[in-house]
Automatic annotation (TrEMBL):
Gene3D superfamilies: 3.40.50.2300
Keyword Signal: yes
Subcellular localization: Cell envelope
InterPro entries in the cross-refs: Peripla_BP_I, SBP_2_dom
Major localization listed first in the record, in broad terms: other
Alphabetical keyword list: Signal
Name this polypeptide is given: Inositol transport system substrate-binding protein
Source organism of this protein record: Lachnobacterium bovis DSM 14045
Length: 327
C-alpha cells in the first residue's frame, strides 16, 4: 500500500508539472462568467443517488445564480487532480468534489492550491480537512445503520437473538460507519446477533443477489438483511423472493430511499430504507461553497460540526413514507 501511494505521489508531481507547462488541455478553457465567480463540480461516477445529487446541486446553483461548471472524471484519480489544477489556474472560487478515492483528498487539495474544496458523497477523514477551507457535506452514516437496526428490532418483536446478513459497500468510511451503526444499536439493546454472512457487494444489485444466495445455501435461518444502500437491498429481495422467503417476515432494509426502493417497499418487498436527502445536501453544498469560496466561515450554518463537517440528518422511510416519495 505504501509503495502504491508513493507511485501515485510521483505521478501527481509529473501531472502538475506538465499542467504548468501546457495547461489543462483535457478540459479546455471555461467560458463561464458570473458576478459571483465560477464554481466547479467534479464527479467520478454516478449511480442512482449520485445522479440525483448532481441534478439537485445544479438546480440549487441555478436557483442561487451561481455559475457551476461540471467535470466528469470517471474513475480516474489523475483526471480529478487535473480538474483541481484547472480550477486553480482559472481562478474558480471553490470546488465541489466527489472524490473517487477518499484517501486521495490531500493530493486533490495540493492540486487545488488556494481554492477551497467541498467534498461530497464519500466522507473524508478529518485529518484531511481544514476549518472553512476543506470541508465535507453529507450525512452522519452511523445514523443510517442505527435507523435500520431500530426498525428491524421493533419489527421482529424486540428479540434477544437474531441471524442477520449484512451487505456492505466498497471499502471506506461510509461503509464502515453504516455497518458500525447497525452493530452498535444491537449491542446497546443487548441483542445477540449471528452475522451469518457479511461481505462487500460493492454497492451492486447483482453481487448482492449472489451473496444472499450463498447465505441461503448455508441452510441457516435468515431473520433479516441489512444493506448499506438500496441497490444491494433490491438484490437481496431478488434472491430471497426466488427462494420462497416471506418478505413480510424477513425484513430487508437499505439506504438512500431511491424511487426503485420506495416502489419495492410499497409493493411489499423491501420493508424500510433511510433517506439521504439529495435536495437538502445540495442546499448545504452550494451554501457552503459560496461561503468558503468568499473566505467566510460556515460556523453559523445549522448542520455545522467543527467547521469541517456539515451533517445533514437522515430520515426514516417506511411504507407510508415510501408512498409519498413515488407520487
Amino acid at each position: 500500500m505504501k509503495t502504491s501511494k508513493k507511485i501515485f505521489s510521483l505521478i501527481l508531481c509529473v501531472v502538475l508539472a506538465l499542467s504548468n507547462l501546457s495547461g489543462c488541455s483535457l478540459f479546455g478553457k471555461s467560458e463561464s462568467t458570473s458576478s459571483n465567480g465560477k464554481y466547479m463540480l467534479i464527479m467520478s461516477k454516478q449511480d442512482t443517488f449520485l445522479t440525483l445529487l448532481k441534478e439537485e446541486i445544479e438546480k440549487e446553483a441555478k436557483n442561487k445564480g451561481i455559475t457551476l461548471d461540471f467535470v466528469d472524471t470517471g474513475e480516474q484519480v489523475i483526471d480529478q487532480v487535473r480538474a483541481c489544477k484547472k480550477a486553480k489556474d482559472e481562478n474558480y472560487k471553490a470546488i465541489i468534489c466527489q472524490a473517487y478515492d477518499a484517501d486521495t483528498a490531500r493530493q486533490l487539495e495540493i492540486a487545488a492550491g488556494d481554492v477551497p474544496i467541498v467534498f461530497i458523497n464519500k466522507r473524508i477523514d478529518e485529518k484531511f480537512l481544514k476549518e472553512d477551507k476543506y470541508i465535507y457535506v453529507g450525512s452522519r452514516d452511523s445514523e443510517a445503520g442505527k435507523m435500520q437496526a431500530e426498525y428491524v428490532y421493533e419489527k421482529l418483536g424486540k428479540p434477544s437473538e437474531i441471524n442477520a446478513v449484512i451487505l456492505k459497500g466498497s471499502s471506506g468510511i461510509v461503509t464502515e460507519y453504516r455497518t458500525l451503526g447497525i452493530k452498535q444499536y444491537f449491542q446497546e439493546k443487548n441483542v445477540k446477533v449471528n452475522y451469518i454472512f457479511e461481505d462487500s457487494a460493492n454497492w451492486k444489485t447483482d453481487i448482492a443477489s449472489n451473496y444472499v444466495q450463498i447465505a441461503i445455501n448455508t441452510k441457516q435461518k435468515i431473520d433479516c438483511v441489512f444493506a448499506n444502500n438500496d441497490l444491494m437491498a433490491l438484490g437481496a429481495v431478488e434472491a430471497l423472493e426466488k427462494n420462497g422467503y416471506d418478505l413480510s417476515k424477513t425484513p430487508v432494509t437499505g439506504v438512500d430511499a431511491t424511487v426503485e426502493a420506495c416502489q419495492s417497499i410499497v409493493d411489499g418487498k423491501m420493508q424500510f430504507t433511510v433517506l439521504q436527502s439529495a435536495e437538502n445536501i445540495a442546499k448545504d453544498v452550494i451554501q457552503a461553497a459560496v461561503i468558503i469560496g468568499n473566505g467566510k466561515s460556515i460556523k453559523d450554518l445549522e448542520h455545522n460540526s467543527n467547521q469541517i463537517y456539515l451533517f445533514v440528518p437522515f430520515e426514516k422511510v417506511d411504507k407510508e413514507g415510501a408512498k409519498s416519495r413515488i407520487k
